[in-house]
Each structure stands twice: as C-alpha cells, then as structure tokens.
Amino acid sequence: MLETVLGLYNYWIVILLMMAGFYTVIARGNLAKKIIGLNIFQTSVFLLYISMGYVEGGTAPIVDPDGADLYTNPLPSVLILTAIVVGVATTALGLALVVRIRESYGTLEEDEILEIEDRRDGEA
Amino acid sequence: MEHIIDIVLMAFMAVAAIVMIRLRSLFAVVMLSGIFSLLSASLFVVLDAVDVAFTEAAVGAGISTVLMLSTLALTFRDERPPRRRDPVPLVVVLVTGAALVYGTLDMPHFGDPDAPIHHHVAPRYIVDSPVEVGPPNMVTSVLASYRGYDTLGETTVIFTAGIGVMVLLAGSWRRRRRPASGRTPGGTETRS
Q1: Positive/negative CA dihedral, A6, A41, A32, B151
Q2: Structural domain count of chain A
Q3: How many other C-beta atoms can be found within 10 angstroms of the C-beta atom of residue B56?
Q4: In B, which residues are within 8 Å of A53 by CB distance?
C-alpha cells in the first residue's frame, strides 16, 4: 500500500496540478488568469514526462568517464526542452491577444466582453 | 534522500497552484507563477533532467514572468470577483481528475528501471550517441541530430508566434501614437 502511494505520488500531484490549471481555464472569466492557468497545466505535463523518464539510482544523461552505466532516459528531456520553448512562444501570443482585447473592449472579463458584443450586434 | 526532496518540492508546487487559483490580485499570481516555475526547475534537477532544469529556470521563470508583468502593466492588476458561482467546472474537473488517477493505477512506479519507456529507443541513444554524434551530453545529441526535425519545427513555431505578436501589437502602437482617436489611451487603471 505505502509502496503504491510512494510510487504513484508524483503522478497524482501532476494530476492535481493539471486539474488546477484546467479549473482556472474553464472557471475563471479573466483572460489573463486563464493564460496563467494554461501555464500551470503545461508545467504539469512537463513534470509528468520527466517523472516517467527518471531512473532510480541513475545519473543525468551525460557520459561519465568513470563508467556509470545507469542513466536517466534522455528522450523525455529532449521532448520537454522543445515543449518549454514552444510553450513560451504560445504564452507570448496569448498575452499579446489579451493586450489587444483589453484595448478594443476595455475589459478582460469574459462576460463583460460578451455583453459588449451583444450590444454591438443589437446596434448593427 | 532524493525521494524526500521530490515529495517536499511536489507538495510546495501543489500548494502554490491552489493559492494561485484562489488569489484575485493578478500581480501576486504572476509572482507565484515565477516561484512555481523555479520550484519545477529545482525538481527537474532532482529528477536528473539538468538541461530541462536550466531551460525552465531561464525561460519559464524568467521570460514568462517578464511577459506576464508587461501584460499586467498594459491591462489590469486585479481580477473582478465572480458574479455567480457555477458548480459545473468543479464537477468536470473532479470527474476528469478521478478518471486520470484511475488511469495511473497500473502505471509503472516512479523510478522503476524496468518501465517500458526505458526499453525502446533510449538504450540506443545512451549507448550509441557518444560514438555516432559525439557530444558527451546525450540530450544534446538527440536534440540536434536524431530529432533535429523536431527542433526545426520548434523554431518555425517560435518564428510564427513572434510574427503574430508583432502583428497584434504593431496596430495598437500605431493607434496610440495617433492623438485624436476619441478614446483615452489606457493608463494605469486598476479595479478593486
């Protein structure tokens, strides 16, 4: 029982973080907050991959001249390196959209933006 | 020892994430998200993914925080309290979380060297990459050589996102420079 809990602890915290991010995205009306939620979600995925790549008793995947033979899996690290950089690029794009929406509507709250939209549709 | 550090850092991250949901001051949330990134970078060091750790520390904790702070400077510092509480998102999140936890039950345990993930292409990278590619750091070899097209795709995404940001913001700079546009340009408005 304890072994199962310790063995799966990382994955459970990852799921908790993932759901925290997901909740922020779907429940909060503020667009800036939604992007922060998306960031939490992203970080949880990074942690999931890196946790799966970890090997008990291994070392970092850099060749050891003294002949260590157990290395942590290098593949998740590579995938996540790419994901981190792409994640920042998408965050930047999202934040630029937030700034642009604030300029056009004067608010970042989802429901207020929808009201303004409805009003504009009514006038047209 | 590594396990204890891992458990403690993971617990810190969970607390930081939950506080971030509850706080309404966006400035505090951005600061916490910097701390959150730094905690995850420390965790990556503990989990032997050193390349990921310094990328996360530089890009996640550094650049993201700067981007978010500049967004807050151009928009609002605070989030408006909700008009009504909707129970649906919480239910959706709880059900999804429960399904995911159920999915982890037959996963290989943390740190298990016999997990299937360690028996596919990883042994080849570990054994052959120092000879076939050269650098002692296997992550570098895989990133630049075996999965070089991934990296090319990554630069394409960054390039596209950069152009998108420039197009979105260039229009607003032009509008702000034109003085008689009717609306007052956004100052340091804050709402409580």
Answers
A1: positive
A2: 1
A3: 29
A4: 47, 49, 117
| Radius of gyration of chain B, Cα coordinates, nearest whole angstrom | 22
Residue range of the domain that includes B44:
1-76
Helices (H), B47-87: 50-55, 64-74
Go through chain A and tell me how many residues it has.
Answer: 124
Residue range of the domain that includes A88: 2-123
Contact between B27 and B77 under an 8 Å Cβ cutoff? The reply is yes
Using a CB-CB cut-off of 8 Å, the residues of chain A touching B58 are none
For B102, the 3-state DSSP assignment is helix
Q: Is residue B85, in this structure, part of any structural domain at all?
A: no
| Distance between CA atoms of residues B160 and A90, nearest Å | 10
Whether B79 sits inside 8 A of A88 (CB atoms) is no
pLDDT digits (tens, 9 = 90+) for B51-108: 999 999 998 889 999 999 999 988 888 888 877 778 898 999 999 999 999 998 888 8
Q: Are A57 and B110 in contact (CB under 8 A)?
A: no
User: Does residue A75 belong to the interface with chain B, where contact is any CB pair within 8 Å?
Assistant: yes
Q: Which chain B residues contact residue A97 at CB under 8 A?
A: 168
**Can you give the pLDDT of all 124 residues of chain A as single tens digits?**
888 888 888 899 999 999 999 999 998 888 999 999 999 999 999 999 999 988 888 888 888 777 777 888 889 999 999 999 999 999 999 999 999 998 888 888 888 888 888 888 888 7
Q: How far is A117 from chain B (nearest CA, A)?
A: 18
Asked if residue B60 is part of any domain, the answer here is yes
Q: Which of residues 71-90 of B touch A (CB under 8 A)?
A: 71-72, 74-76, 79-80, 82-83, 86, 89-90
